[in-house]
Design a protein that fits this description.
28% strand, 7 strands, alpha+beta, globular
Length: 194
């Protein structure tokens, strides 16, 4: 069973292998990182860890724990541009790990971590219009389209947003008196107090 882990220095070799092995697969649906990324990977990894230590980003990897494949990275799930209780979610999953529900399950786990560990209340994300897989993961995990049309490296895309209130409620077994948010959606599992 894969395990979500906070990015560490010792993940570097497996993370580089993950990026190299999946480069062509990723480039078909999201912008390619370019040769410079791979040429300066060690310095880039150190810079990411410094950003994480400063609290402006939270980087995670989905690590295979199966015998014979232990330590292999199956995906990346990141919360970047952390400020004022919000962050941007970005994720990518290895080609061989697609179609198993791992991205959906891990995004749900990241949403819980965002609320309970990092104190985030709002997550934003974006996906290219032709990236059906990522758009599906976002909607399955409670992200709502903002209606904002954006460009992702000259590719048309959509912005998404999600509140983490449900995760906070689940972790604390408490809910506010009013269970409505900006979306106007009611949360029926929350009992109203008289």
């Amino acid at each position: 069973m894969p395990e979500l882990q906070r990015l560490r220095a010792d993940h570097a070799p497996a993370l580089l292998a993950f990026e190299q092995e999946n480069r062509a697969f990723f480039a078909a649906s999201i912008p390619d990182r370019g040769d410079d990324y791979f040429a300066h990977f060690t310095a880039r990894h150190a810079a990411l860890l410094a950003e994480q230590a400063a609290g402006v980003c939270h980087f995670h990897v989905l690590v295979n724990t199966d015998a014979g494949a232990e330590g292999e990275i199956l995906g990346r799930f990141n919360l970047v541009n952390v400020a004022d209780g919000s962050a941007e979610l970005g994720f990518r999953i290895a080609e061989k790990a697609t179609g198993r529900g791992l991205a959906t399950a891990t995004v749900r786990q990241i949403c819980t971590l965002a609320a309970t560990e990092y104190g985030l209340t709002t997550l934003r994300a974006a996906a290219a219009l032709d990236n059906t897989a990522s758009r599906t993961v976002l909607t399955r995990t409670g992200f709502l389209p903002t209606g904002e049309e954006i460009l992702l490296n000259d590719r048309p895309g959509l912005g998404y947003v999600r509140s983490t209130a449900d995760e906070v409620w689940a972790a604390t077994d408490q809910a506010p008196h009013s269970a409505r948010f900006k979306t106007g959606r009611a949360y029926p599992h929350v009992a109203r107090r008289s």
